[in-house]
Specification:
This protein is α/β, with parallel strands linked by helices. The chain has nine helices and four strands.
Length: 226
């Protein structure tokens, strides 16, 4: 019996995971929903890993959009074709044009080989259609990655602009002023700390970020609370 999985993910507290779940269940009411909050861009996500390992030939994985599967184009492409080779169906509600079913249809031989000298020309044409389909898939993942990077850049620029104007950003009771240095340090921690996406120890990250131990543990705690 084939299984339909629905994968939902949010990366900030301000996002709503309920919307993704509603969209998936509206089209696949029997889908088994898996959801998680994750702030990184890599694929080491517990709930996703469960689906990835469990999915078998004939199963379907549904995403609200391609950005929920991966925000990194290279990783997204790799996982997409790994699942395709396992005959797992992928559905992207906002980008149906890269569903695996669409890809399979678009890469079927467009011209039947007839056992003549013209077959070499036909093979070239068929190969062109395959490459075109792969390009469309890559563009979708790259666009998703670009949107995330642009959002991060706009956020950093907004923080810096507000700081220069003397505004307090993200100041809550018991918290401190968000500064450009703290934002940069948190990016380093997320990227390199073994507790997130990296492989460095606490001491190594502290040295790399150029911050005190107190600041490091404060920033790491705040990141985990996001």
């Amino acid at each position: 019996m084939c299984t339909v999985y629905g994968y939902c993910r949010i990366s900030t507290k301000q996002q709503s995971i309920d919307r993704q779940e509603r969209n998936i269940l509206a089209e696949y009411p029997d889908a088994i929903i898996r959801k998680e909050a994750y702030t990184g861009t890599k694929m080491n996500r517990p709930e996703w890993n469960k689906i990835y390992k469990a999915a078998k030939a004939g199963d379907t994985i549904v995403f609200d959009s391609v950005s929920r599967m991966s925000r990194n184009a290279d990783e997204g492409i790799e996982v997409y074709f790994n699942l395709l080779e396992r005959n797992v169906n992928l559905v992207f509600l906002k980008e149906h044009y890269i569903d695996t079913e669409i890809y399979k249809n678009s890469t079927q031989d467009k011209i039947e080989l007839i056992g003549s000298d013209e077959d070499e020309i036909f093979k070239g044409i068929n190969n062109y259609f395959r490459k075109l389909a792969v390009k469309q898939i890559r563009i979708a993942f790259e666009q998703s990655e670009k949107e995330v990077n642009d959002l991060h850049q706009r956020t950093k620029e907004g923080i810096e602009t507000a700081r220069l104007n003397g505004k307090q950003i993200g100041l809550k009771k018991g918290s401190t002023l968000t500064t450009k240095k703290s934002v940069a340090a948190k990016e380093i921690i997320k990227k390199h700390s073994i507790d997130f996406d990296g492989s460095l120890t606490d001491a190594e990250v502290i040295k790399l970020a150029g911050i005190s131990r107190n600041s490091f543990y404060k920033y790491k705690r705040e990141l985990k609370e996001q």
